[in-house]
Amino acid sequence: MIGIIVKLIARRLLTAVPILLAVSALLFCVLRVLPVDPAAMSLPPTATLAEIEAKRHEMGLDKPLPEQYFIWLTDALHGDFGPSIQYRRDSGSLVAATLPATIQLAFAAMVLAAILGVGGGLLMFRVRGTALEPLTDFASILLLSIPEFLWGLILLFVFGVLLQVLPFTGEVAPGLPVPHITGFLLLDSLMVGRFDVFLSAAKHLILPAVALGLAFSPTIMRVLRSSLFDVYHEDYVQQARLRGLSEGRILVRHALKNASLPTLTLAGVQFGILFSGTLLVEVIYSYPGMGNLMVDAVRNADLPLIQAIGLTYCIVVLIINTLVDGLYVVLNPKLRLR
Amino acid sequence: MSALTRSLRSPRVLIALVMILCILCCAVFAGWIAPNDPGDQNLLSILVPPVWAAGGDPAFPFGTDSLGRDVLSRLIYGARTAMLVAFFASLGAMIIGTVLAHISGYFGGTVDWIIGRLVDVWMSFPPVILSLILMVGLGVGLDRVILAIILVDWTRFCRVLRSEVLVVTRHDYVAAARLLGFTHWQAIAREVLPATLPLLITLMSLEMAIAVIVEAILSFVGLGVGANQPAWGQMIADARQYVYQSPWNLLLPALAIFFTVTAFNLLGDGLRRTLDVRLSESGR
């Protein structure tokens, strides 16, 4: 079975290569037709036209566009995205420094979204046909109408400002040391044995992760419910009932297992979107991840940094989708036989 | 159009339409409804709480922001921004997406393949990231926001409608139209397009909800409609800095966005249930 999964992932990665090439070309073109001159921006305002021209030559901006793209691509493949204009540091290292914080946030949110989504979906399915059904129906539409952006603000307002029970700015309480080993703060603080840092970091993670998780759970809820409906029309559910199995057992042992496949397909797509959803949540909670870096870069038209971050987002989303495909094979016996 | 009249009897659609009408009224008659000029700065009365809180001033029913601008008036004028973006962005995305979907689904073959791969590449960009990158290129402004949303979201229409067109094109009445001497374009316009209309209308109302959110996001990040145009996202960004002094300033625009998005989603959901034949047959 592992062989099949590896083969499948390898195939997915092969199709990912042309997509990534096209994405990087698109990214490159969009940012090159800008009315912004990176050469002029990286020089002091007193620079003469001749100096700007020399800088343009040095940066390769006087070459034809396809050649510029090729140079950028070969450098990018070597991990060199060029220096950020505002930080004057390699863009790749800036991304690498902020990526773990974003992954940590996205992972916590994904786990939450999965728990809430499956729990809510089961609840919605259990109350079908009862007086509670329209209520859960309406609730799910309401939940669907609240994007992560609004959840972030609502939770910040209720738990941060009104109740003042949870912190809502930054990654860890100010004044505490931030250990750097893997970049994942929760992990690093445990590795250096600073439980106070771990606790503070965990507290700071709660609101952003819940905001993101809540925003993505209703879709999972609704798909799980409707796939449960489909599964309940199947003969094996009737048969299980005839055998005298309890409704709870049918739901968990037979229906849920089969309904989890379409749910997972959708959840995979959702998790890809969820990863980019970290951007807003990070901005709202001033969480020092890649999203804040991106907004910062965008505000300052820092082209090399925007390119590096944009490409990183696309790569992570592609990786998530590939992993979900692999998981799909693990769970679906029909695909394993092929 | 019996399906449309039927959907008008659905409670979801009715409630949604009433909600949308309220927002539309705010948007259209903003000049009459708003008690103050949304851009007027009263630097002597900044961050005034709303009237129901202690220290409120009846001149500013919902309080003022950090520059002393009237929150209620900015909320009302913000509705105008949101509705303009919702309408024109979803219309533009709908037109591009629908045209490409019909070409792709009707003709098939190489054209279909090319459009399909274009959608693939476009969709491998997370929408938020792509719209941010586009805003760097386009610059701020109401028309730029609309253009950015169109350029990002046409794929939503294209992908969903294409599979619908694929099904409709196989129907005999399309072949019959061709036999009657219809050109391909006539067949698409008169036979295929009307059949995909219910799905199209549903998608459009859902897209309006998305456009409202994206506009709020871009304005929140500071790459939206620009500083002179009141926008809910901008109000939130301003309030985020003074969240301890005036939490209401954060909550009110957030509620406005929530109300608008719920209205469009409810409309989309109601239309989907009543217009989509397959859905109403299976009861779900």
Overall form of chain A: globular
By DSSP, the count of extended strands of chain A is: 0
> First CA to last CA of chain B: what distance?
22 Å
Strand fraction of chain B equals under 5%
Number of helices of chain B: 12
* Overall mean pLDDT of chain B: 86
Structural class of chain B: mainly alpha
Mass-distribution shape of chain B: elongated
What proportion strand of chain A?
under 5%
Order of helices and strands of chain B: HHHHHHHHHHHH
Helicity of chain B, as a percent range: over 70%
Uncertain regions spanning at least 5 consecutive residues of chain A: none
Number of helices of chain A: 14
Task: Give Rg of chain B in angstroms.
Answer: 22 Å
Alpha-beta content class of chain A: mainly alpha
Q: Roughly what percent helix of chain A?
A: over 70%
What average pLDDT do the residues of chain A reach? Answer: 82
Distance between the termini of chain A: 10 Å
Q: Please report the two chains with the greatest interface, counting residues with C-beta closer than 8 angstroms to the partner's C-beta.
A: A-B, 50 and 40 residues
Please summarize the sheet with the most strands of chain A.
Answer: none
Profile the largest sheet of chain B: none
Overview of this structure, please?
- The complex is a heterodimer of chains A (338) and B (284).
- With 338 residues, chain A is an all-alpha fold.
- Chain A is 76% helix and 0% strand.
- Chain A has helices at residues 2-32, 38-41, 49-59, 65-77, 91-126, 133-144, 148-162, 185-191, 195-231, 235-242, 247-284, 290-299, 303-331, 333-337.
- In chain A, helix 5 (91-126) runs antiparallel to helix 11 (247-284) and helix 7 (148-162) crosses helix 11.
- Chain A is globular and about 85 Å long.
- The model of chain A has no long low-confidence stretch (mean pLDDT 82).
- With 284 residues, chain B is an all-alpha fold.
- In chain B, helix 4 (71-107) runs antiparallel to helix 9 (184-221) and helix 5 (109-123) crosses helix 7 (142-169).
- The longest helix of chain B has 38 residues, at 184-221.
- Residues 279-284 of chain B have low confidence and may be disordered.
- Chain A binds chain B through residues 19-20, 22-23, 26-27, 30-31, 33-36, 141-142, 144-147, 149-150, 153-154, 156-157, 160-162, 226, 229, 272-273, 275-277, 279-280, 283-284, 294-295, 298-299, 301, 306, 309-310, 313-314, 317-318, and chain B through 117, 120-121, 124-129, 132-137, 139, 209, 213, 216-217, 220-223, 236, 240, 243-244, 247, 250-251, 254, 257-258, 261-262, 265-266, 269, 284.
